[in-house]
What does this fold into?
Amino acid sequence: MATAKKAAKKPAARKPAAKKTAAKKPAAKKTAAKKPAAKKTAAKKAAPAKKKPAAKKTAAKRKPNAAFMKAMTPSAMLAAVVGASPMPRTEVTKKIWDYIKKNKLQDEVNRRLINADEKLRAVFGGKGKVSMFEMTKLVSNHLK
It folds into this structure.
């Protein structure tokens, strides 16, 4: 009986081992088969990705707000910084930022603050430091 039990145990132990090796070989073949499929799906994914930016471009083509594009005349104090010719609000803001960066008036510690020099202090109503959000409000008072 002891030999029968040992004999029963040995083939049982060999069968799972044989299945594992047999399972490994087809798995290797399956991964080889999956690799070209992965390339195909990557190619399929790349094609729709190209179509999506085209859809975004149509959404990005919107008309600018006429109020922002209307040419406005700056006051004499603001004209000292940006120039006297009429220009849209967007251009006024760009020129003020160019002036701030050229003269290094942005605060080094808190980049949201602007340290006003003599020309900007007149525009900012006498304030020495103004936040960038408050700046647009104060500049709009000098546009007609």
Observations:
- The CA atoms of residues 112 and 131 lie 6 Å apart.
- The helical segments are 2-60, 66-69, 76-82, 89-102, 118-123, 132-140.
